Structures are given as C-alpha cells and as structure tokens.
Amino acid sequence: MALTVMEKTKAGGGPAATLSRGSDPPYTGPTADIHILNWLRSHELAIYRPPFPLPVSITHNRPPRISTPTSHTLGTLTATPSTMSTTPEPAFVATSLSYFVPPADGSKPWQNINSDPASGKRVTNTSRAFHAVQIENLRGREAEPSLDKNGFEYFRKPAKHTSFASAQEIEAEYYPESIELLKQLTGANRVVIFDHTIRRRRPEDKEDTPEKRQPVQGVHVDQTTASAVARVHRHLPASDAPSLLEKRFQIINLWRPIHHPAYDFPLALCDYSTVDAERDLVPMTLKYPDRDGETFGVKFSEAHRWKYVRGMTPEEGVLIKCFDSVQDGNVAVLTPHTAFIDPSTPEDAPLRQSIELRALVFYD
After folding, report:
1. Which of 28, 113, 124, 300 has the most CB atoms at less than 10 Å from its CB?
2. Using CB atoms within 10 A of its CB, is residue 316 exposed (0-12), middle (13-18) or buried (19+)?
3. Measured between alpha carbons, how far is 70 from 68 in angstroms, rounded to an integer?
4. Which residues make beta-bridge pairs with 283?
5. 130, 313 Cβ separation under 8 angstroms
6. What are the backbone dihedrals phi and psi of residue 265, each rounded to the nearest 5 degrees, phi first?
7. Rounded-to-integer distance, Cα 308 and Cα 66, Å
8. What domain count does the chain have?
9. Containing domain of residue 358, as a range?
10. A single Gene Ontology molecular function, please (predicted)?
11. Residues with Cβ < 8 Å from 117, sequence gap 6 or more?
12. Measured between alpha carbons, how far is 9 from 252 in angstroms, rounded to an integer?
C-alpha cells in the first residue's frame, strides 16, 4: 500500500495536507494526521520491521520485555530508564516525517514565525512532503548518543521547578538550575539562556503563537551559522561578543516533558553522522514581526537515521545541539529534529506538554 502525504501552505493560505492510500480517495485537511495515525495503528506489526539489522534479537517481530532497568552515567549524572509501560518497548516504530521541499522557482526559502490565524498554518514559499521512516527507540540505551558524536544527548535530572505556570517564574527559578545543569553536562564555563517555549498540543486549536505554541511536526534545525553569530551579538554585551566569538561556542536546546510523560507527539532526533550538510540543509529566512532570522530547512535523505526515547518523563530530558562553531569534521555541528506521530502511543495518553530552553554555551 502506497502512503503519500503532501503539504503546502501559500501566502494567503492553501491546502493543509493530502493523504493518499493507493487507489483510495485522498484524505485532506487538518485531520490528515489522524488518518496517518489510524493507518499506522491498523498495521501495528510494521513498527517491528526495521530496514536494517537490529542490535538485539527479536522474537515474533517484538523486542524482549525489559525486566530490570540498567543504570547509565551521563557526565556526572546517573540515568536510569523508566519502566512506565506494562507492554514491551518497540525497538523501532514506523511513521512518516514532514520534510522540507525548496521553492520550485529557485528563490530563497522563507517562512513566517507565527501562523495565520485563519488557517493555523505558517505562511511560506516552501512545500513539505511526508516520507516513511523507521525511528529507533533508545529506551534502555539512553547513554549511547552524545552531543559531539550524534548532536544530542539524553539525561535524567529532576527539575526543582515543576509548575511552569508563568514566564516570570520560569525565568526566575527554572533558568538558574538549567544553567548549572548545562554547565555540568557540557563542561562550559558560561551559559546564557536567551528564550524558552512551552508547547502544549491542542488538536482542535489552530492558534500557534508565542503564547500558544504547539509541537512542530516538521524536520528542521533552529540555527544557521549566520543566525548563531547574530544571537551572540543580540544577547551578549557588545564588549563581550568579539572575544566570545573567537572561542568555541554552541547553541543548545534543553528539552523536557512537563507534568506527564511524552508518549503523545514525542521528539525524534536525527543522528548528525547520517546528515550530508551540503546536500540536506538549506538556509531559510524566518520572518519575525520585527526582524528576520534564519534556520535550516532539511531535505529528505534515505541515509538519515532517527532516534527517540519512548515515553520520556518530566525527570528526563535531552540536549539538542543547534549549532557548534567547531566545524572541522570531527564533531557533530547540529541535529535535525521534529515531533512525530508515534503509532505505539497509548490511546489514553495525555496530550504532550513540554518546555525547551535555548541557550548560548561558551567555552574557554
């Protein structure tokens, strides 16, 4: 059965999505993702059939039940996989990810940061295409990826601040403890958090504004080299910026679920070692109300290898490298990432809520 989904938003609005299943009539509109999820759930065995060899033996296409958690050390922190689910953890899940398609006329891609109130879509001159992928579940092996090897790194460290009720409280309480956590995990000597985003999924709500952000179902990278350098000048004193730019610096997002585990619309990360930066990444202007920024659109590649940790809890999190000034070929520079529809999500799972901090990270 062929599964094809195309999405395109034009200036002034346009069709949201089209899902075609062989000879069946296409599904269109904002409910297309629901049809994708239903289709995936109805073909459940597909989630245990990866296109490449598995690292563990599988019986009847299902991974063995993990009976005893294994502890891993992440830097100076200890990570212990949770045992939330009473069902076996899938080794892989099959889903579709929304990838960037450049403008057909060859013009520079651009997109508005805020969505159109009527359509709920961000106005852009680009298109998106869904591609079928396998995403590896690292539950029980959270310590395997690292920032410099893969572009992301999982950790377990409960936050002292847990309400996430207001921006003022988050900045006063959550920022300081997160700065110390970032220093501890990375070895950086200076960390400057320049903003944060709370995401709460609301399927019936089209609004996607800074106050009501929803999970982003689209493969992307937050920063380019130009926008990362601009961030240093924007958020650091003019007297500090020149010397800081002479040394290694990074932009790292600190992401964690809030209030409950993130089974719904979890976060997938692409191993940087499988990304061809020259071929896969396209600079795209990101239009804010008062200025222009720049991100990378990510084109599909069969080489991409995707990872996630199923059912991440509020005590767990992941560091996402969005930029690294060291670009000598020996370390990961960034990692594409996206929210996605997980066909193994329990029917009664609460809708995703998460917070991500964006930080400039400096080294001596």
Report:
1. 124
2. buried
3. 6
4. 296
5. no
6. 45, 60
7. 17
8. 1
9. 3-362
10. oxidoreductase activity
11. 206, 207
12. 29
Amino acid at 165: A
H or E, element range at 32? helix 32-42
**Residue in the structure block whose two tokens are 């075609």:** 20
Q: Smallest Cα–Cα separation from 63: which of 88, 94, 93, 95?
A: 88
- Give the SS3 label for residue 243: helix
Residue located via tokens 């509020």: 314
DSSP string covering 247-293, please?
Answer: S-EEEEEEEEE-SS-B-SS-EEEE-GGG--HHHHEEEEEEE-SS-EE
Q: What is the pTM of this model?
A: 0.77
What residues does 154 pair with on adjacent strands?
A: 318
Q: Encoding tokens for residue 303?
A: 């080489």
**What tokens appear for 84 in the block?**
């939330």
Per-residue pLDDT of the chain in tens (364 residues, 90 and over written 9): 333 334 333 334 443 333 433 333 333 344 444 444 444 444 433 333 333 333 322 222 333 332 333 333 344 344 444 444 456 899 999 999 999 999 999 999 999 988 877 777 889 999 999 999 999 999 999 999 999 999 999 999 999 999 999 999 999 999 999 999 999 999 999 999 999 999 999 887 776 666 788 898 999 999 999 999 999 999 999 999 999 999 999 999 999 999 999 999 999 999 999 999 999 999 999 999 999 999 999 999 999 999 999 999 999 999 999 999 999 999 999 999 999 999 999 999 999 999 999 999 999 9
- Ordered DSSP codes for 193-257: EEEEEEEE--TT----STTSB----S-EES--HHHHHHHHHHHS-TTTHHHHHTS-EEEEEEEEE
- CB contact set of 244 (below 8 Å; sequence gap of 6+): 190, 232, 236, 362
Tokens of 251: 């932009």
